[in-house]
Design a protein that fits this description.
The complex is a heterodimer of chains A (253) and B (151). Chain A is an alpha+beta fold and 253 residues long. Helices cover 45% and strands 17% of the residues of chain A. In chain A, 25% of the residues are buried. Chain B has one domain (21-148): Mog1/PsbP, alpha/beta/alpha sandwich (Protein Transport Mog1p, Chain A). In chain B, β5 and β6 form a beta hairpin. Classes of the chains: A alpha+beta (253), B alpha+beta (151). Chain A binds chain B through residues 89, 227, 229-230, 232, 234-240, 242-244, 246-247, 251-253, and chain B through 32, 34, 38, 42, 48, 50, 52, 54, 56, 70-71, 73-75, 77-79, 81, 104-106, 111, 113, 115, 126, 128, 130-132.
Chain lengths: 253, 151
């Protein structure tokens, strides 16, 4: 039984792990070579067609034909430079635009802003941004990450299956030494599951929300925009500043 | 002779007083005239809305269209106000005029500035009202009514 458990762990180490942690297992050693076990990452193993020991390691699923994956996982990003008369107001309006479209502001400075909007409303956001001034630079990218997404999903599924197998082995452990070895491997696979879940969540977020970076630049007055000051002095005294100042104290403005 | 001079003085004073432009005040406003100021009259509400009337010479007889455009261009072109509305009006005395409404923002607060222009011959009459948009808005109709009472 002890021998069987050891072989199982050997198989697990080779099947699901980049680096085995069992001290008694030499990946390049004669035992491993005799057993036909080579340590590789999961993807490589799948790519080379090598199989894990059938009795322990989860069978790798056939990678789905990526062209058939619908909907495609696409990350939309846009970067814009916009000339505008009022930079501060344009930044504030862009923030409101993001919120109106169901998104949010990610970063903001006095003249620039990064917003996230639902991917389905990316085109609408871009169209509305272009109304805020003259777009001088535009960079829009649609990055297809379907392959990366599917790969992460498969790796996560495999890691979870491996976790379940290890839990099964833990129950079968006959002594403390065996249990400790399995526990050690369990901890490593758990970490791997968490890492993959994190990666998948981050990628899913990038797919769900497009990222738009906008830098606003104050538009210089066009040379042709010559303004003639009319020769009626009192026109210069119109406005809220004069209207609301009393006893020499400045008014609202 | 003395009596005749006195009568003349009284007549001139009465005529001068009669030429002074004036308008009715809406409820809730108090006059705060400053002698020698730009305005013939000014009044304020407790929440800081200011209503005023001023007149300027129009020796070259610019028309109502001319002055309303000049006022609009000054405020929009040079001061950054945004034109929010423009309408033809008629004072209670039957004098045609233009009512212009402007909006502007200062440190995140919106302000409203209303301005009525009348051109009775060789004078330009300007009735103004303004303050924080949230204070002006509920009084807008009363302010317009006061501006139409210009005489």
């Amino acid at each position: 039984m002890h021998k069987a458990l050891t072989l199982c762990l050997l198989g697990l180490a080779a099947g699901g792990c980049a680096e085995p942690k069992f001290s008694w297992f030499d990946p390049e050693g004669p035992r491993a070579q005799a057993a036909g076990i080579h340590l590789r990452g999961e993807a490589e193993t799948a790519a080379t067609g090598e199989r894990r020991p059938a009795d322990i390691a989860p069978q790798p699923e056939e990678t789905p034909h990526l062209a058939a994956v619908e909907p495609r996982k696409v990350v939309y990003t846009g970067q814009f430079k916009v000339l505008t008369d009022e930079v501060g107001r344009a930044v504030a309006e862009t923030r409101k635009l993001a919120e109106r479209l169901g998104g949010y502001m990610q970063r903001m400075t006095g003249s620039g802003i990064v917003i996230r909007v639902p991917a389905a409303r990316f085109d609408q956001a871009v169209a509305e941004l272009e109304k805020m001034g003259s777009v001088t630079e535009r960079y829009v990218q649609a990055q297809d990450v379907t392959e990366e997404y599917v790969d992460l999903e498969i790796r996560l599924k495999s890691a979870k299956a491996l976790l379940a197998k290890l839990l099964g082995l833990l129950e079968k452990a006959k002594d403390v030494k065996q249990a400790l070895e399995v526990e050690k491997e369990l901890a490593r696979v758990r970490t791997e599951v968490e890492r993959l879940e994190g990666q998948l969540n981050r990628l899913a977020s990038r797919v769900a929300y497009a990222t738009i970076t906008v830098n606003f630049i104050a538009a210089p007055q066009a040379p042709g925009e010559l303004k003639v000051v009319l020769p009626f002095w009192w026109l210069r005294t119109l406005g809220l500043k004069e209207l609301t100042s009393f006893e020499g104290r400045p008014g609202l403005f | 002779m003395k009596c005749t001079s006195l009568l003349w003085a009284l007549a001139v004073a009465a005529a001068a007083a009669g030429c002074q432009p004036a308008m009715d005040l809406p409820a809730g406003f108090v006059r705060v005239d400053e002698p020698g100021g730009l305005h013939q009259m000014r009044a304020v509400s407790a929440d800081g809305v200011v209503l005023a009337l001023r007149s300027h010479d129009n020796p070259r007889q610019g028309t109502l269209e001319f002055w309303s455009e000049a006022v609009k261009n000054e405020l929009v072109g040079f001061r950054g106000y945004k034109l929010a509305g423009k309408e033809a009006i008629q004072s209670q005395a039957g004098r045609p005029g233009k009512l212009l409404s402007f909006a502007t923002e200062q440190k995140g607060t919106m302000f409203t500035y209303m301005l009525a222009v009348f051109v009775p011959g060789r004078q330009v009459l300007i009735a103004e009202a303004g303050g924080k948009a949230q204070a002006v808005q509920p009084k807008a109709e009363a302010l317009k009514k006061a501006m139409l009472s210009v005489k």
